[in-house]
Every structure is written in structure tokens, then in C-alpha cells.
Amino acid sequence: MFKRVIVWFRNDLRVHDHAPLFYASQKAEEVIPVYCFDPRNFGKVNLEIDKTGNHRARFLIESVDNLKNNLVNLGGDLVILQGKPEELLVDIAKKYQVDAIFFSEEVTSEEKKVELNLEGHAWKHGIKTTAYWQSSLYNIQDLPFPVMQTPEVFTQFRKECEKFAKVQPTLPTPKQIKFPNNLNDLGEMPELSTFGLKEPDHSSRSVLVFKGGETEGIRRLQAYFWEKDLLKVYKETRNGLLGSDYSSKFSAWLSMGCLSPRFIYEEVKRYEKERKKNQSTYWLIFELIWRDYFRFICKKHGEKVFQLGGIKNNVDKWSRNENYFWRWANGETGIPFIDANMRELNETGFMSNRGRQNVASFLVNDLGIDWRWGAMYFESQLIDYDVCSNWGNWMYVAGVGNDPRENRYFNIMRQAQNYDRKGDYIRHWIQELAEIPGFDIHQPFELSTSQLKNYKVVLGSTYPHPLVRYKAWI
């Protein structure tokens, strides 16, 4: 039994199914929950891109604030720090005579480096550290193979896990958090301006108002599964582009750990018992397994995930044309299906799965630009940024990841025909093209100057000429 334990929250901003919090409440007389805003996560990366953009930072602050409220409701509180956690956590531990620090284990290099530095620093001062694995659906200890032998092909990974691994039950939320009475310096919640960021404008065109926090995540699940009864059609609708309910949108809350994947899994199983079991209910679990797969692949391959050649060591010739990259990033490529998706991302911090595949393929395969630039831009902008899924998917599209098929090329016009035949998605996000009827809105560069004039469009003025154009698209 410990006298005092710090629970360091990271990408696990919840009180349900939380191993460090649960075991600290069992093993310690008093628990000090801590969240640390690390300035290294808010600097600039290549091309002066914000490592964490304003949409994602806003969602994070909301999530931490909600965590604090949920801890207070359990009799606890949350200490807010700003600085390097490997230093500040040990300082607090020394100040308040803490015996141990419990935290969630991460897998990628930046996070692992912080863990190792924390463990080394704490050990010097006689403070114990315990890391818990809790970020995946399947626990790392329950995999049917050593993690360093994780299959390179997803289908093999999925089949082996489904056959031989079990999903452990969720851990109960502690009934009470015993917080020290003498701890008064709780710190302050930062503003976006603290990190040199501006408050994002609320977009009236957003498919969903994403608000951070466990409470909102559970509310979204309740609405999608139980109130609107949409899980039963998930597989049929998940490739949609417009509207709040074509997919679950759980990814934002999963990415910051506001929702536990095991909690979602248990709710799916309850839905199957109480409502309906079909391909759609299975498919949502299938997507959680994809998320696991990228996590274990990242643990297996380490730094290779972030290198140009990926895990295949396949270093092709990539362009680093900054002008083309920024036209892609700003939604100014002259290809409406690409531009609409990028404008949605920039305005809301979200983009559909179908959109992500298309814009990534366009950047990599049509423009030939270094795939890591795209991955960094998504890291900055996406509110549901997950390091393993993001970099894993970008490797996949770039042909340097885990795909038995060599060519992940997306024919933009064929995709537009399949998923936005009437052009409603383009009209929603590119209003300067809104008067062009039907599918023609996807290819204004195929219309005559007089036709465009009728629709109040001037290529090169009101809307850009296309960066590239292929007969194969048409």
C-alpha cells in the first residue's frame, strides 16, 4: 500500500476504464491526478506548420477541463502543469512525498523518450514508476504473438486476434478519489493564446460540433447507438461525406482517450444483444482492430514509421515543391473534390475517412510530394489525430507501409462519381462553384469559358486552374 500516488494523464483523458487511476485508487491512501501541457507539443515543425493546430488544441483543452470536472465529482481534482513532465512530475512527487507515479504506456519515439526520462529521474529520487498498457482494444499481453512478430499484413493480424485473443473487460470507475487536503496549488488551465494559437471560428458548415471530453464522447456514443439507432447501418453509410451521422465520429474522443476502445466494444456487444447483430456492428469492431494494428506496428518498427522510406525502406524520389504543397493544404489545387475536403479540414479540424484517402493519394501519387509533409499537416489540423493511425495510414498510401498491393492510387473523378455524384459536397464547401449543376461541378476545367461565365466562375480568378489533370480521370 502506498501513501500517495501521482496519476499522470496523457492521451487517456477519462475516468472510466482507466488502469492507472483504478489501481492507484486501490493501492494508495491518496491520489494526485496530474496533466502536463508539454510546450514541445506546441512548437513548429517543417514548413513552419504548428505541431498542434488550433482545432486540436481547443479539443484538448476542453477534454482536460472535462477530466478535471469528472475527477472533482469523484472527490478528487486535477493538477495542471505546463512544462516538461519528466521534470515537473518528479518535482511535485518530491514536494508532496509521493511514493509512485502511475501512467499509461505509449509506443512512439517522442512519448517513449519522455517516459524513459521520467523513469530515470524518478528512480534517482527513490520514486517508483508503473506504466500500464491501456490504449488498445486488445491488451499487449493478450496478443497471440510477441509484439515484435506482429504480422505485417492486417488481415493476418485481425484473423489471429479474433481467433486467439480476448478483449479484457473494462475496469470500473473508482467510486471515490482521495485527494490530499494540503495540495492547494492546482495550476491554471491554459488558453490557446498561451501556445501562440488563435481561437478557431465556429463553422456553421461543420458536420458535427466536436467538443472535447469524456462526457461529450459518451454522449455521442449514446446518441449514435441508442437514441438514433444508427449502428445497424454503419457499414452502408460510413463512406459518406456530408452530415453528422454517416459515421460514428468516435475517433476524436478515442484519439485523446476520452473514450476507451473496450468501452465502445462492450457497448457494441450490448447493442448486438438488445437491438441487432449484423455486418455493421461487426464493422465498427473491425475499425477498432485496424486502430490496434497500427499501434502494434508502430511499437514493432519504431522510428521507421517517421522516416521517408517507411517500414519498407523504399526511398523513392519525392518532390518538395512548397508551392504545390501549400495549394494542396489550403484547398486551392483546382480539383474540387480535393479542395472541398481540405477546406473542411481547415475550417473544422475534421475530414471523412473517404476524403482522407483521396487527398493523401492526390498529394503523394498525383503531385509526388513527400508523404511526411502530408502526415505533419494532418497531425497539426485533425482533432482526431492519433500518431499511430495517422502515420500508419500515410505510409500505406505512400507505398512504404503495410500493404501487399503496391499501388494505392485513387482515381479522383471515379471516387467523386461514387461518393458525390450530384456534387452536393462540393457545393457545401466551395461556394464559388455552387451554381454549376450536377457532376460538372467536379470538373469545371472541362467546361467552356462561356459556360463558366454563366455560372459566375472564372478559372484562375474566382477558382484556380487545376495543378494537374489526367485523361484517365474523365
UniProtKB/TrEMBL annotation:
Obligatory cofactor(s): FAD; (6R)-5,10-methylene-5,6,7,8-tetrahydrofolate
Cofactor note (record): Binds 1 FAD per subunit. Binds 1 5,10-methenyltetrahydrofolate (MTHF) per subunit.
Chain positions recorded as FAD binding sites: 234, 247-251, 287-294, 384-386
InterPro entries named in the record: Cry_DASH, Crypto/Photolyase_FAD-like_sf, Crypto/Photolyase_N_sf, Cryptochr/Photolyase_FAD-bd, Cryptochrome/DNA_photolyase_1, DNA_photolyase_N, Rossmann-like_a/b/a_fold
Keyword set includes Flavoprotein: yes
Annotated SUPFAM superfamilies: Cryptochrome/photolyase FAD-binding domain, Cryptochrome/photolyase, N-terminal domain
Biological-process GO terms, alphabetical: photoreactive repair
Residue span, Photolyase/cryptochrome alpha/beta domain: 3-137
Assigned keywords, A-Z: Chromophore, FAD, Flavoprotein
Pfam families: DNA_photolyase, FAD_binding_7
Site (Electron transfer via tryptophanyl radical): 318, 371, 394
GO molecular function, one term: FAD binding
NCBIfam families the record matches: crypto_DASH (TIGR02765)
PANTHER family per the UniProt record, alphabetical: CRYPTOCHROME, CRYPTOCHROME DASH
UniProt record similarity statement: Belongs to the DNA photolyase class-1 family.
This protein's name: Cryptochrome DASH
Annotated organism of origin: Cecembia lonarensis (strain CCUG 58316 / KCTC 22772 / LW9)
Lineage per the UniProt record: Bacteria, Pseudomonadati, Bacteroidota, Cytophagia, Cytophagales
